[in-house]
Design goal:
Layout: H1 2-21, H2 27-32, H3 44-56, H4 65-93
Helix pairs in contact: 1-4, 3-4
Length: about 90
């Protein structure tokens, strides 16, 4: 039970970090902005402004660095969250 409470606190802390990055957006907003299905996750709210910036600058690699960095940070935090959940689940099995 203690592990479950710790895990819940960890998830809530990371989701609050994700909310500060871009927040959750609705499925309709994702559809309106043509976000591909394979990237519709908690970081989609950051991807939308990034893609708008990319289109405005004709996908120039030296443009939109701040937006891309923020998106990559969000992806990494989501990866760390999944890794921690898997680690805790494996520890609970033992």
């Amino acid at each position: 039970r203690r592990l479950a409470v710790t895990l819940l606190c960890f998830i809530l802390s990371l989701s609050s970090v994700a909310m500060t990055h871009g927040g959750k957006i609705s499925t309709q907003e994702m559809m309106d902005n043509q976000v591909p299905l394979h990237v519709r996750d908690d970081c989609a709210g950051i991807l939308i402004p990034l893609n708008k910036c990319r289109r405005a600058n004709f996908y120039a690699p030296w443009q939109c660095k701040d937006e891309r960095h923020e998106y990559e940070i969000c992806l990494y935090e989501q990866y760390e969250l999944r890794r921690q959940i898997k680690k805790d689940a494996n520890a609970a099995k033992k």
